[in-house]
Amino acid sequence: MNNKQHTYAFIGAGNMSGAILGGMVNSGINPDNIIATNRTKEKQQALHQKFGIKTDLDNKSAIEQADVIILGVKPQMMLAMLTDLVEQGIDFSQKLIITVAAGLTINRYTGIIGNVRFIRCMPNTPSLVGLGVSGLFCGTDASKYSAEVIEQDKEITSVMFDAVGKTVWLKQESQIDDIAAVSGSGPAYFFLFMQRMTEKAVELGFDQETADKIVLQTALGSAQMAAQSDDSFEQLRVNVTSPGGSTAEAVKVFNEKELDSIVSSALDAAVLRAKEMSKL
Ligand SMILES: NC(=O)C1=CN([C@@H]2O[C@H](COP(=O)(O)OP(=O)(O)OC[C@H]3O[C@@H](n4cnc5c(N)ncnc54)[C@H](O)[C@@H]3O)[C@@H](O)[C@H]2O)C=CC1
Ligand SMILES: O=C(O)[C@@H]1CCC=N1
Question: Domain Pyrroline-5-carboxylate reductase catalytic N-terminal spans what residues (predicted)?
Fold first, then answer.
């Protein structure tokens, strides 16, 4: 299947959808086949200028032009937006619907737009540079659609998200909440750690530019090295930690302050919030 023949409408294209569609364009997908809406004219124009895609202020018109619809608004706005679109007479039955919203479970959507072909996706923003991770769950009702249609939809989705990073198909819908806590939110955790390291580097006497440079390159180098190595993350860390050396002292502080428990509690809190959001 040639995925470039599909037309994609990103409805409510903000940070996350912008990263996905930007990554798609960067990977060679024809920008003429991508249309994005945003209710804010400036944001919409910025997407057109940056990526050369088509943009529209009108969700209805964008949906009518596409066969793959990516719903990218905040969970709190999603159901009201879909209700409004159904009231405007939009028929979703011939479209593949992909939602990137955290929390909201499939039954919340089908209650409004019907029992349509449906994929839940949990991407992350490094999709913009082709290094995203997307958890995918197919929620199409197998008693209504054939196995062939479902496989085709999964293929369309895989091609789209493989173009912007790695994809992981999930067996259960609840795993979307889990992968959201790990890789969906994950960039925020790494950015937070980088921010704190940079602040400390400035406190130690480096100017901001130098602090940014050394922290960024350390993060980049560590990730690249791990990606190219057969060693576990633990072994790579051990390789840096000379017995009796300075790294060992820093690692001791992380352990004494229970970094493992901090990370575990933080991810549990993210999973819990996703489950609460499903009930909004
Ligand atoms: N930001 C992230 O790293 C990730 C976000 N997500 C999910 O992606 C979704 C969007 O998140 P962000 O992109 O961060 O939010 P965002 O606020 O940047 O993007 C949403 C955009 O939708 C626009 N919008 C709102 N209502 C609209 C309507 N009725 N018609 C047209 N445009 C409308 C807003 O102007 C906004 O620019 C959320 O549901 C979130 O759960 C999922 C994974 C990661
Ligand atoms: O913060 C959120 O709710 C979304 C889900 C994962 C990343 N951003």
Answer: 8-103
Residue 240 structure tokens: 């840096």
Is the ipTM here above 0.95?
Answer: yes
Residues listed for the chain:
280
- Does ligand 1 come within 6 angstroms of the Cβ of 38? yes
Atom number of ligand 2 nearest to Cα 16: 8
Instruction: Map out the domains of the chain with their CATH numbers.
Output: 3-180 (3.40.50.720), 186-278 (1.10.3730.10)
Exposed e or buried b for every residue in 157-169, given b needs 16+ CB within 10 A?
A: bbbbbebbbebee
Q: What is the DSSP letter of 107?
A: H
Count CA atoms within 13 Å of residue 6 on its CB side: 23
Helix axis angle, 147-162 to 15-26, nearest 10°: 80
Contact between 192 and 199 under an 8 Å Cβ cutoff? The reply is: no
How far apart are the C-alpha atoms of 105 and 112, rounded to whole Å? 12
Quick one: which ligand is closest to 59's CA? 1
Give 233-243 pLDDT, tens digit per residue: 999 999 999 99
3-state secondary structure (DSSP) of residue 206: coil
Q: Is 261 exposed, middle or buried (0-12, 13-18, 19+ CB in 10 A)?
A: exposed
Ligand closest to the CA atom of residue 135 = 1
Per-residue pLDDT band for 279 (boundaries 50, 70, 90) equals confident
Residue type, 1: M
Is 119 flagged in the annotation as binding? no
The response to whether residue 180 sits with its C-beta less than 6 Å from ligand 2 reads: yes
d(CA 4, CA 21): 13
* pLDDT for position 4: 46
